[in-house]
């Protein structure tokens, strides 16, 4: 597929008309067939997969490319080439992807994250202390600024070895990079500034190594004889971007959803052992990283009764797949007791989210701690009036609460 001249093909990405539901266009497209055509912002067309089985098939197919530099890559944001820089695992194909992912996988295993949990708990408790201080007398307090952003930012800063006092710098650039309304020039400038900031940080680790992840990675690459300052800078940028923005948005969205349904929240707080399952359901229900799972077919791929031809781009929608009634009956309902095995909120296949174990731990600890320590928490206004983000990663700008 190339430039589209058909007015019958819908423009993509779709907007969420209800913040607590995926885009309405997914359901009819999912019912019509395995694949649909959509028109991207650059006027090119691409395939869109909306059924769970086909999303998983495509994301695990070996004859696909995730390279943002590929001329047929279906770009859903302007200046997507910025994300094709050295060190960006999400844009690498094998064998490079396998090589570099192996370098960092051990840092995010279940065992490593279990060892981090006591420190994460300390960070969450400190942030909840500040929430209570900021809202002495009952608030209101913006949880985004006092809890949702600080928790994952502190965790990833400590993990990587990034000075926490610089968080304002990288959070500002991250917002520009992920905002759908950012121009190519704005996104390019933010990318360049963030890369320069992290390049200086990587250089400082060379001069004065510490026990943090970036220094450990530098040692691994030197021992393997493949040290590359530019690549390590890109690695740092990807981990920093992915390590705080997505989790911060899920913290805010999860709190809003649970406060919106107090009976479900009461059931959850009565039995903290159910929190891990509730986190999985919230991840499925929101699917905040919906359409960056784009690829290019490197050979013809059969998907149901459709053939995606070699050289054609496709998008595998996480939100559409996670609301497929064939797999998740009554998918529109937030069911905290649901068996969510198989959801694709963290992607699927070789490019599945590297930090998903860390994200789960942070979410579980935040929800358990926040609702235990502030049992009377409630939203200041109607949940539908919250200022939701129109961005590559769905979220909330502000979350004002009281108690």
In brief, what are we looking at here?
The protein has 403 residues and is α+β, with helices and mostly antiparallel strands.
SSE arrangement:
Blueprint: H1 26-32, E1 35-39, E2 45-49, H2 52-59, E3 64-65, H3 96-105, H4 110-134, E4 141-142, H5 143-148, H6 150-160, H7 167-178, H8 184-207, H9 213-223, H10 229-260, H11 262-270, H12 275-286, E5 294-297, E6 301-303, E7 306-308, E8 313-316, H13 318-322, H14 356-373, E9 378-379, E10 400-402
Helix pairs in contact: 4-6, 4-14, 6-10, 7-8, 8-10, 10-12, 10-14, 12-14
Main sheet summary: 5 strands, mixed
Tell me what the CATH architecture is. Answer: Orthogonal Bundle
Estimated radius of gyration: 21 Å
Number of helices: 14
Structure description:
It is a single chain. With 403 residues, the chain is an alpha+beta fold. 47% of the residues lie in helices and 8% in strands. It has one domain (26-402): Cytochrome p450 (Orthogonal Bundle), CATH 1.10.630.10. The chain contains 14 helices and ten strands. The protein has a five-stranded mixed beta sheet with strand order 1-2-8-5-3. A three-stranded antiparallel beta sheet has the order 4-10-9. Strand 1 and strand 2 (45-49) form a beta hairpin. The radius of gyration is 21 Å and the shape is globular. The relative contact order is 0.19.
